[in-house]
Amino acid sequence: MQVVIDILENELIEKYPDILGILLRDQTTQKNIFWATDNYENLGESYRFNSEISPELITGEKGNVIMPRVHKDKILQLSRSKEMAEVFTPSWICNAQNNLVDNSWFGKENVFNKEIVLKNGTKSWETTKEKIVFPKGKTWQDYLRDTRLEISCGEAPYLVSRYDTTTGEFIKIEDRIGILDRKLRVVNENLDSITDWLEAVKTAFKSTYGFEWQGDSLLLAREALLITFIENFSYKFETEPSLENIQNIAEIISWNIWQMDGLKGIIPNSCKDETIEIPDFFETKIEIKKCKGCETQNIKLHNGIYCNIMDWEIEKPIKFISLLEK
User: What pLDDT does residue 202 have?
Assistant: First the structure.
């Protein structure tokens, strides 16, 4: 893959057969993820809100349909911010907040980097060069297994930081600050065998989650995680991973980064009013039964399609809302 921030679907489909199909799969419905936005409806019927995203809609001559927010025009950025609360966080803020989580986990500060202010007044970070040391009673394997979730993840800037989503500036692998980036750094520092490295990286991916409403942003997030895997493998071993290994990681990503209405735990807009016919002596009456979950704002009572995620410990899908009971 080229060192660019916009992952080109044409390049994906040409270089890695079947990968784009995996990244577009919705594991709950066993269909494709759908647009869940009206931003593309001017392109035709297949680009409407409820239409599935298929490879042919975003490849070939249409290979530049989906692009990172930083490449979208300012009017569209503003529209999505107003309509869908789409706000992309600068990488220095993502880093600062990820640092807070790691400060708690490690029991000390500045483990992966030190936050700094540059001469021009902008905030940034300085990467620690030493190998990460783990606190007493915790191992680097524990860190890989620690479950992390980015809610309403958009392009997933808290998970992977290939580029600053507000400036478009590419970030070198050794300076990345995402949750998954940090886990991969730990793997790179502790393993040199390809076989062991791949198994550890699978663990890192399986413990890293995120959900998003809009289909285009979701695909960008999934692509970013996958390319992060390829880039780290190439960085570590100076060659690209096999197609089989890329497919395995893509499959994990398709489960762990999923499309969901975060307030309801369901596939977006899947709740429906039910029409009930009530026989009467003179005529049949029609009654509209609304979704109880939507009426009462009770997350357990929606009649929409509840989202599944994979429980990797038992290798079986579970409903996401079941985690709320734990």
Answer: 98
| Total number of domains in the chain | 2
What digits encode the pLDDT tens for the residues 161-179?
Answer: 998 877 788 999 999 999 9
Question: Measured between alpha carbons, how far is residue 319 from residues 220, 223, 314 in Å?
Answer: 24, 24, 14
Q: Are residues 213 and 302 in the same domain?
A: no
Residues 6+ apart with CB under 8 A from 326: none
Q: Select from 259, 286, 308 the last residue of a domain.
A: 259
- Asked if 123 and 116 count as a contact pair (C-beta separation under 8 A), the reply is yes
- The full DSSP string for 187-246 is HHHH---HHHHHHHHHHHHHTEEEEESSHHHHHHHHHHHHHHHHHHHHHHHSSPPPHHHH
- Residue 264 falls inside a structural domain: no
Tell me which residue has tokens 């429906």. Answer: 272
pLDDT digits (tens, 9 = 90+) for 293-321: 999 999 999 999 999 999 999 999 999 99
Length of the chain: 326
Domain-terminating residue out of 229, 259, 289: 259
Half-sphere exposure of 198 (CA within 13 A, CB side): 14
